[in-house]
Write a structure and sequence with these properties.
552 residues, alpha/beta, Aminopeptidase, Glucose Oxidase, domain 1, 16-stranded mixed beta sheet, two-stranded antiparallel sheet, 14 helices, globular
């Protein structure tokens, strides 16, 4: 889940009701709460992929999807039926023991503590160790190569044999103006891009400087997400996608590094926001001795389906990720289980109940698939596997509606989606909302890059019209001031931390309203001949157009 408040319904001023409900709800808050409470309980051990927690989660989802009336829709079996699951082979790598990390700057050497000044990920380049000695560091700004924007942070500098130090987010983040969409993050701002660019250039690796605002989360999130087991899809040549070292460093350490090189960190960051920026060698080297275990494991997507009455080969997808961070480093209270109640037991609960609504309601003309994906927290891997190994053809997939967290704060006046993409699927969502007096608000924090951080993105890359629903921040009880304050509190104190636990006092009334809206959107699409499309200037339009002949 990518932090942002889950949303509810709009209301009208004056004598009008808080919202216009066209029909009784299809959803039961108590049933949703029961799923969240179970999936986020300590018994499920944080739902880490390839752990006993996964086994319990897969069993629970398969059982509850069946009880809801769905049919198994995963991998085909020898007898012609389908399993509840889709096998997802993944590379798993985990650090063994405590890595030895030393930094030499200005002639002095100091040890760095894993998880404190630095967070070094277990290697995903196909090796079982990181063994580097006195590798030089070079600051390359935001680490962006964007020919279409006439932007190159490397300026021909050969970074082979070096560690690159980069800033998180885009060059526009600080000013809100420029070639990269202003405050709205582009893919160039994502840490995944920065690691990929280092691998493309043959660098030893990347050190991303963490700052809370441009990253949109605190250091605790970085530590908890990058010092446990790492996963990737199984690649023929992993070194082409991953350099040996993929790490984050604290801002204070970066300031120290720059000072030892006679540089001012803030001044260097300002320079990096210009097209004329040139790489800056740092008077520092880094050594890392890290051991890891790695191997291929098989995780699972869970897939249920309602088969369409007249167009069964045309598919609408609802998705949510079932995984979280599992068992990890203890917090200040000694709690080691990362329960992930909001992120994303809540979206998984919504997926089960959305399946129930379609299975017990009028049979749709098109098929509807309910896809619970694995390893979202490891880089959208389960959804990427489905998007590149679809069980049902993407050419005739109407669209994908993703639920990464649901409203757990009561009713709100607005709703949104992650990112600012323009597509017919969003137009349909806005139209359905208007019918019941609900209003759409563009994403409150596009600078967080949420569009690239949730499972709909992997579908979009294949051309499928896809959105990740985001609830609103303008709460009926307290407005945007309270909404924004609660976002900040969750991000700081609970996001990717053991404290993301179920609270029985949680108000799910807004979640029920949201799910009714998403149900009516799906019902509209599943009972029509509509094929939503990306806007003409969308980067995903070309991929969709390539399969146009399959849609009639």
């Amino acid at each position: 889940m990518k932090t942002g408040l889950m949303c509810g319904v709009a209301f009208f001023l004056g004598a009008a009701p808080l919202f216009a409900q066209a029909a009784p709800s299809h959803f039961d808050a108590a049933r949703i709460a029961g799923h969240i409470e179970t999936l986020s309980s300590d018994a499920f051990e944080g739902r880490g992929p390839a752990t006993p927690g996964e086994d319990k989660t897969i069993a629970y989802l398969s059982q509850k999807m069946g009880e809801a009336g769905l049919v198994p829709a995963g991998d085909p079996k020898a007898d012609g039926t389908r399993a509840w699951t889709q096998d997802v082979p993944l590379l798993r790598s985990e650090n063994v023991g405590t890595p030895a990390i030393t930094l030499t700057e200005g002639g002095s050497t100091k040890a760095l503590t894993q998880g404190e000044e630095i967070a070094v990920r277990a290697p995903l380049d196909g090796t079982n160790a990181i063994d580097i000695r006195n590798v030089p560091l070079v600051f390359v700004g935001y680490g962006v190569t964007a020919p279409e924007k006439k932007w190159d942070d490397f300026k021909g500098v050969d970074v082979r044999g070096k560690l690159i130090v980069v800033l998180v987010n885009d060059p526009d983040f600080e000013t809100g103006q420029g070639d990269f969409g202003g405050k709205a993050m582009t893919y160039y701002g994502r840490w995944t891009y920065k690691y990929e660019e280092a691998a493309r250039r043959g660098a030893v690796g990347t050190l991303i400087v963490h700052e809370s605002k441009p990253a949109s989360y605190e250091w605790a999130t970085v530590k908890n997400s990058n010092t446990n087991a790492m996963f990737d899809i199984v690649r023929e040549n992993p070194k082409a996608s991953h350099a040996p070292v993929e790490a984050w460093i604290q801002r204070d350490l970066a300031v120290q590094l720059f000072r030892a090189s006679g540089l001012d960190f803030d001044g260097a960051k300002k320079a990096a926001q210009s097209r004329s920026f040139r790489p800056m060698p740092l008077n520092a080297t880094l050594s890392i001795d890290l051991k890891a275990t790695s191997g291929t494991i098989v995780s699972h997507n869970v897939v249920g389906r309602v088969i369409g009455s007249t167009k069964p080969d045309e598919t609408l997808i609802y998705s949510a990720h079932w995984d979280h961070l599992g068992v990890g480093a203890p917090d200040a209270k000694g709690d080691k289980i990362y329960n992930g109640a909001l992120d994303n037991a809540s979206g998984t609960a919504a997926l089960i109940e959305m399946g129930r609504a379609f299975a017990t309601g009028p049979r749709p003309q098109r098929s509807v698939v309910f896809l619970a994906v694995t390893a979202e927290e490891k880089g959208l891997l389960g959804s990427e596997y489905y998007a590149t190994h679809p069980l049902y053809p993407l050419a005739t997939t109407v669209g994908a509606i993703n639920m990464d967290g649901i409203q757990m704060l009561g009713v709100a006046r607005n709703f949104s989606i992650l990112g600012s993409a323009k597509l017919g699927l969003l137009d349909d969502l806005i139209a359905e909302g208007a019918k019941v007096g609900r209003t759409f608000t563009p994403e409150a924090h596009p600078e967080n890059g949420g569009f690239f951080r949730s499972d709909h993105f992997t579908m979009a890359k294949q051309g499928v019209p896809a959105i990740s629903f985001e609830a609103g921040n303008d709460l009926v009880d307290g407005g945007t001031a309270r909404g924004e304050a609660l976002v900040a509190e969750y991000t700081k104190n609970r996001y990717h931390q053991p404290a993301d636990e179920w609270d029985p006092k949680t108000d799910l009334s807004g979640a029920v309203q949201d799910l009714d809206l998403l149900y009516t959107l799906g019902e509209r699409l599943a009972n029509s001949r509509e094929w939503p499309q990306w806007s003409a200037d969308s980067e995903f339009r070309a991929a969709r157009d390539q399969t146009a002949s399959a849609r009639k």
